[in-house]
Amino acid sequence: MSENTTEVLVGGAVLAAAIGFAVFALQSTGFAAGGGGYPLHASFRSLEGVNVGTDVRLAGVKIGTVTGVELNPETYRADTTFTVTEGILVPDDSAVVVASEGLLGGNFVEIMPGGSPFFFEPGAEITDTQGAVSLISLLLKFVSGGDAQ
Questions:
Q1: What does pTM read for this prediction?
Q2: Per the structure, how many domains does the chain have?
Q3: Do 66 and 83 fall into the same domain?
Q4: Could you report the per-residue pLDDT of 52-71, keeping only the tens digit for each?
Q5: In the predicted model, what is the mean pLDDT of the chain?
Q6: Cα-flanking dihedrals φ and ψ of residue 57, to 5°?
Q7: Is residue 149 part of a domain?
Q8: 61 and 75 within one domain
Q9: Quick check: helix, strand or coil at residue 148?
Q10: Do residue 17 and residue 75 come from a single domain?
């Protein structure tokens, strides 16, 4: 009887660990149910290091999540959709930048607010964007004396 109890306890522990990993995976990929928000769109030349679930930040504070990324076959740009938390109004002259957390950190989408008294409506497109800067290409330019493209 004690052998059967041990098997049940070990099976329960394995099941609990599997459920914990599943919850973590859903949260880290952006599939977890979160608070509401409104969508905004932007198109980037380079979206290196940004995927669905990547943070959207303003002044270093997470205010949203990237919800969609796809290549536009006509412009060859990365069309991106992201949500912004309800109640946070983004001025309509703001810029969106792909920023890095540091030399070894990951990338995130940062909103650089403008000074306009008017705000983006849900579903609007932000046209002032700056894509990711490739560290490898910067190093190649430095090593070659700045002539490399």
A1: 0.67
A2: 2
A3: yes
A4: 999 999 999 999 999 999 99
A5: 85
A6: -125, 150
A7: no
A8: yes
A9: coil
A10: no
